[in-house]
């Protein structure tokens, strides 16, 4: 009793959606389901056949693509998703476990690393050389500066000596004046130092 | 548990070659000259790569992945498990130290007063360096020993040997990567992630 009831309920829903006119026919259907299935089967097959024949004729007429070119499986069967192999993709991971391939990989890696380390060392050495050269250059410059400073100091000392010896009456240069002016000589000295 | 792919093997060797010299090829050499001689291979289980005898690895196939805690010597751990082939980010594990120490190219010996700071996870400062391999470039893998030649860990040089000579005593000479203190500090995760 229960299954028959449920069937009627389902059909009622279907009839509401489809329309009133078809409801009568649908109500009659479930009472003898075997008949319905018999009716549906041949109708579908007829339709498929009807569609296929003109399609095939068209294909034959055009003859542009073959089934192989389209990549359609030859038998129209359902294939599970996992079974189909994707085109152009690798099937899985390629493992490396044999001794030969491992040693070749190792040799390649080691050669790379050797080269890397060597280039690093060469670079470091070059940098060290450059630094050394710079240091030496800086030292030279320092020495030159010192020498120049000493020279100017010497020349100034000589000049002062000359002025002391030669002209006590000269009034031309301010420095000479100051230098010759006894008590004010200390001030002149200070100035000279700050200038140097 | 599976074997390594070509790319994975390459990255592994590159990492090892940072620390070791040409003797690394002995790592995968067969144990004797017989045709079916046993040899060491690399196996990947979950997020770890193991260095293990082929015969042992074959025996281990009878244990399921989840139940296999560890086998052989663990060489490296991946930073992001399962993404090795994509990111390639992994680090050498402290358990790889015996292998690295055996084949080390550059070595650094630290004085007794520098042992504890290093074993507590600190970098090596110049004041703690006892001896140092000559001609070592900067950013090069280096194995750290104490003065009695016991390997304590490994790291990466911060300066080349020449540059380090001019460095002040508190200047960092070697960045720590792994040290034996991890056996205590990371006891929980050392053999199981």
From TrEMBL, chain A:
Keyword tRNA processing carried by entry: no
GO biological process per UniProt: intracellular mRNA localization; mRNA transport; ribosomal large subunit biogenesis
UniProt keyword Flavoprotein present: no
Keywords linked to the UniProt accession: Coiled coil, mRNA transport, Nucleus, Ribosome biogenesis, Transport
A GO CC term attached to the entry: preribosome, large subunit precursor
Basic and acidic residues bias (residue ranges): 135-155, 165-176
Source organism superkingdom: Eukaryota
Compositionally biased intervals (Basic residues): 186-196
Subcellular location: Nucleus, Nucleolus
Comp. bias (Low complexity): 17-29
Alphabetized GO MF terms: mRNA binding
InterPro entries hit by this protein: Loc1
Region of interest (Disordered), ranges: 1-50, 135-196
Family: Belongs to the LOC1 family.
Function: Required for efficient assembly and nuclear export of the 60S ribosomal subunit.
Subunit structure comment from the entry: Component of the 66S pre-ribosomal particle.
Protein name as annotated: 60S ribosomal subunit assembly/export protein LOC1
From TrEMBL, chain B:
Localization (cell): Nucleus, Nucleolus
Membrane-traversing stretches: none
Molecular functions (GO terms): RNA binding
Keyword RNA-binding tagged: yes
Span of domain PUA: 106-181
Keywords attached to this entry: Nucleus, Ribosome biogenesis, RNA-binding
GO biological process, one term: assembly of large subunit precursor of preribosome
GO CC, alphabetical: nucleolus
InterPro entries: NIP7_N, Nip7_N_euk, PUA, PUA-like_sf, PUA_sf, Ribosomal_synth_fac_NIP7, UPF0113_PUA
Function: Required for proper 27S pre-rRNA processing and 60S ribosome subunit assembly.
Record text on subunit structure and interactions: Interacts with pre-ribosome complex.
Family: Belongs to the NIP7 family.
Protein name: 60S ribosome subunit biogenesis protein NIP7
Organism (species): Daldinia eschscholtzii
């Amino acid at each position: 009793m229960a299954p028959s009831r449920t069937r009627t309920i389902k059909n009622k829903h279907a009839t509401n959606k489809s329309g009133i006119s078809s409801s009568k026919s649908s109500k009659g259907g479930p009472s003898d389901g075997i008949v319905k299935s018999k009716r549906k089967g041949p109708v579908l097959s007829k339709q498929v056949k009807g569609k296929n024949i003109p399609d095939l004729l068209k294909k034959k007429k055009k003859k542009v693509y073959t089934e192989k070119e389209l990549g359609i499986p030859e038998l129209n069967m359902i294939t599970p998703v996992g079974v189909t192999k994707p085109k152009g993709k690798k099937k899985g991971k390629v493992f490396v476990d044999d001794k030969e391939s491992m040693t070749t990989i190792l040799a390649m890696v080691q050669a790379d690393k050797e080269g890397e380390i060597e280039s690093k060392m060469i670079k470091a050495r070059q940098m060290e050389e450059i630094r050394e050269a710079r240091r030496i250059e800086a030292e030279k410059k320092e020495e030159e500066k010192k020498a120049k400073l000493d020279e100017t100091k010497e020349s100034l000392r000589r000049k002062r000596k000359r002025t002391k010896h030669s002209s006590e009456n000269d009034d031309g240069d301010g420095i000479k004046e100051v230098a010759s002016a006894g008590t004010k000589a200390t001030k002149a000295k200070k100035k000279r130092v700050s200038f140097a | 548990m599976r074997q390594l792919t070509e790319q994975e093997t390459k990255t592994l060797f590159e990492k090892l070659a940072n620390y070791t010299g040409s003797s690394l090829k002995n790592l995968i050499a067969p144990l004797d000259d017989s045709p079916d001689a046993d040899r060491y291979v690399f196996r990947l289980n979950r997020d770890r790569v193991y260095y293990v005898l082929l015969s042992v690895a074959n025996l281990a196939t009878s244990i399921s992945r989840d139940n296999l805690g560890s086998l052989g010597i663990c060489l490296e751990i991946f930073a992001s498990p399962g993404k090795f082939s994509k990111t390639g980010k992994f680090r050498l594990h402290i358990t790889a130290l015996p292998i690295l120490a055996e084949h080390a190219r550059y070595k650094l010996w630290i004085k007794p007063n520098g042992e504890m700071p290093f074993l507590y996870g600190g970098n090596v400062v110049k004041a703690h360096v006892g001896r140092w391999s000559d001609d070592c470039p900067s950013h090069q893998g280096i194995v750290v020993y104490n003065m009695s030649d016991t390997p304590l860990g490994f790291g990466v040089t911060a300066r080349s040997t020449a540059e380090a000579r001019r460095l002040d005593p508190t200047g960092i000479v070697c960045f720590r990567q792994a040290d034996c203190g991890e056996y205590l500090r990371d006891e929980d995760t050392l053999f199981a992630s």
